[in-house]
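Q: Sequence in, structure out?
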Amino acid sequence: HLKNPVSTNSNFANLTEVLTANLSANLTANSANIFLDGNYVVTGVDITNKQISLATPSAVNDDWNKLADLTDQKTGVGTIKLRGSQENYIGWFTIESAKATGLLLNFQALNGIYQGSDAKFVDIYVEYQQVLNGNPTGNVYNQTIRLNGKANNRDSVGGSMWITLPFTGAVRFRARRTNDNGDAVDLSDETKFYTAYAYHYLSKLVYD
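A: Exactly. Output:
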């Protein structure tokens, strides 16, 4: 079981039903010399007790058997970070605008993008596609943007992606981050999808 995983990663709060899924994590660095690296299958989510069940984890890594020799069969409290796949998109989102010819997507790192005295960056990849009568249609296009931080600077970093659509009308889109700056305690690079707009240019410039 992972006890109270929401305190480590708030996305666990989005789990509302028991499903089977793959989970990859590095669970290391403890005084008992137990290293629980491996790819595990999540078989259950207990929201009430804030626990996640894994399918026979000792079959993946026999270090799980060492827990039997510890008090209460667990190591001391530690800080654990679970990192998901870079294929984790936000979206799809659809904007039903019959006249849309472009998209404006805004991203923001509220606390800056840096690690100690070094500036860092965040790369974001966006896919978009035409929607006709509620159905995705045609090619899936893509565009990227990089948000650059400043060393030792907590100022918010933002970036706007302007997309000229190769079609007119409803559009769907999704976004994901493509780079990983690591887990250092002095790293700040959390970036959020802030706002999204569809737009078109006015054809009438004078109004009576």
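The chain has a mean pLDDT of 84.
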